[in-house]
Amino acid sequence: MIYLDNSATTKIDSSVLETFNRVNKLYFGNPSSLHELGETTTGLLTQSRRLIAETMGVQSEEIFFTSGGTEGDNWVVKGTALEKIHFGKHLITSEIEHPAVLESIKQLENLGWEVTYLPVDSRGIISVENLKRALREDTVLVSVMAVNNETGSIQPVEKIGEILKDYPSIHFHVDAVQAVGKIDLKLGEQSRIDMAVFSGHKFHGPKSTGFVYVKKGRKLAPLLSGGGQEAGRRSGTENVPGIVAMAKALKITSEKQIKIQSKLTIELEEYLDKKKNIEIFSPKHRAPHILCFGIKGIKGEVLVHAFEKKGVFVSTTSACSSKKKTESSTLLAMGIPKITAETAIRVSLSEENTQEELEKFIKIFDEIYHSFKVIL
Ligand SMILES: Cc1ncc(COP(=O)(O)O)c(C=O)c1O
């Protein structure tokens, strides 16, 4: 098997899985319990929070555990809207955000919030000038992702931060789910980012784990109310084994080199570039692990299944849109015609992929490519 769908999810690291199993078995106490078992699990949470904070260059009190990227995005978007309801009801986002952001924002739009959806250019990048023009007195949130999950395009997060320095009350949210271990994202005091969302299963951690960075002093209304866990901001008994394992996965990922992915995706891009009837949709400057492309006239879905038959796992752009059989909204926003967008497939690597796998992939790609000769 050659697994090249790491943007959808990654395989859990074996030592991370061991940690998960050990904590699940031995440390089952509820962190809210007063007895020793509870104390021990509270200690594990504290250590995990500290490890994550150190790895991200922020403070422990700025890390809040969640069930993953979707919850994190929902929390930041809706939590900001609720928190700032008396200050303003204008939100800014891009047209190519993950549905966890876009659908949250649409819900608010239906309830009366005003939204500016920033368009992207042919590389999938927003214009910072457009953003500047969109800012209003009643703007409460700017939500722009770091790395797009379908094409790997990288948004100018630092430049956006520069502009927002003149608007200190606006929450600047960055969906960083596809950024971990791939691009350098500066958080902390020197950065203008107020909230950043992360998901454990995208960096070889367990599924349904995640965390949100919330800059000290920033207020965010909770969405999950209850027993007051996570300093009252996210109630619910903590997923202790998942959190401990995620912290370990983050540490391991942050220490690994991403060069291998860059090298392999660049090699693949160069190979595809030379072939006729191939269109590469990812921009030249992109995250090192994603390459989105298509064969003219061949639906992405057909390609995905052709690869699958040969033991290679890729996807049609995002995991969310592939089962719904909808074409990529990111590609449409980039101005790519619907019929072309339907050809797209996404190859996404992790540090575990090897040169040998890439060579095999290219060989298999060639076989599939030539089998479509009649159509081409
Ligand atoms: C950019 C982005 N944001 C949010 C999510 C949602 O994360 P999760 O699967 O942890 O809910 C994903 C998942 O693909 C993503 O790629």
From TrEMBL:
Q: Which domain of life is it from?
A: Bacteria
What does the record give as cofactor?
pyridoxal 5'-phosphate
* Aminotransferase class V domain span: 2-361
UniProt KW keywords: Pyridoxal phosphate
Q: Which SUPFAM superfamilies match?
A: PLP-dependent transferases
PANTHER family on file: CYSTEINE DESULFURASE ISCS 2-RELATED (PTHR11601:SF50), CYSTEINE DESULFURYLASE FAMILY MEMBER (PTHR11601)
Name recorded for this polypeptide: Cysteine desulfurase family protein
Please name the source species.
Answer: Marinilactibacillus psychrotolerans
